[in-house]
Amino acid sequence: MEAIVIHSPGDLRVEDVPTPEVGPGQVRVRVRAGGICGSDLHYFHNGGFGAIRIQQPMVLGHEVAGVLDAVAADVKHLAAGDRIAVNPSHPCGQCRFCQMGLHNHCLDMRYFGSAMRMPHVQGAFRQELVIDVRQAFKLADGVTDAEGSMAEPLAVALHAVNRAGPLLGRKVLVTGCGPIGAMVIIAARRAGATQIVATDMVAQPLRKALEIGADRAINVAESPQELTQYAAEKGQFDVLFEASGNERALRAAFDVVRPRGVVVQLGLSGSELTLPFNTVVAKEFDLRGAFRFHEEFATAVSLINQRLVDLKPLVSATLPYRDAGKAFALASDRSQSMKVVLSFT
User: Fold this and answer.
1) pTM of the model
2) Does the CA dihedral 310-315-316-317 come out positive or negative?
3) Which of 3, 41, 183, 277 has an alpha carbon within 20 to 30 A of 211's alpha carbon?
4) In 3-state terms, what secondary structure has residue 208?
5) Residues linked to residue 84 through DSSP beta bridges, in sequence order
6) What backbone torsions phi and psi does residue 232 show, to the nearest 5 degrees?
7) Whose CA is closest to 36, among 157, 203, 155, 149?
8) Comparing C-alpha atoms, which of 200, 306, 300, 312 is closest to residue 253?
9) Which domains can be identified in the chain, with CATH numbers?
10) How far apart, in whole angstroms, are the C-alpha atoms of residue 132 and residue 123?
11) pLDDT digits (tens, 9 = 90+) for 60-69
């Protein structure tokens, strides 16, 4: 079968890779759609992010959906022909963090398309994928493959919203309106936020933010003063979701979050951020990180299956996987795209 393999920054190839046999408790997926994620772009442009770097050729991708074409004999609740979303997270279930219910902090995590361990965990941008049955979540009839592939980023957003605590009646600021920030807007609205303001430095993501439910979108590159009005009376927002990984965005947002507000950082930066901790202390912020997800993946698929969220507006383009270079270039252009999906059909 063919897969999309990164060798070094900018060196993306479509290559033949083997498909393993289906063992007990496993299923084989014929991948149909895969969404290009920000981490895929980091590997493509920079060879990694932070201290994480590619040390060997690695199949990219972790946002995929497809159809089962083989099921182990001991798997009873799924059958060949079922369409599924693939959870790329495979925690060990045995380490102390898994035993505490913190599966996203597993000490022996295997996450598709990740260079965090050596040998790297090969990714899911391939024609066929063998997975543990616990990673397969059935999609409802009528749900598109592209929607199914976005269960993973939606799960990331749902985890961030869970980390924030109750949002019913809250005023929310989302900084950074890429796919994750956009899905945070969707998730925050579902959780009961009554006012959602989104900021970014590019017009196209802000237009999408309004389309999927933000009450107001502010281009802080063109009109930074529009955000500063929310600094009155020590800040107007109850909760900040920082999804850009940009230090300037975080610092500016601190001025408009009220005392004892909740700050959820889910955007990753290429370098460590320097925070104004005098402000954190003086305003008694509750500063929380949000990393990946666990139980939220099942919730994401349920929301998609029941049509309780609409992710279709986030799909900017669908390209054949053999045009991976063109697809990655388009996904890198925030003025044109939100979520670019690869088709493996």
Assistant:
1) 0.95
2) negative
3) 41
4) helix
5) 66, 138
6) -55, 145
7) 149
8) 200
9) 2-150+311-343 (3.90.180.10), 157-289 (3.40.50.720)
10) 14
11) 999 999 999 9
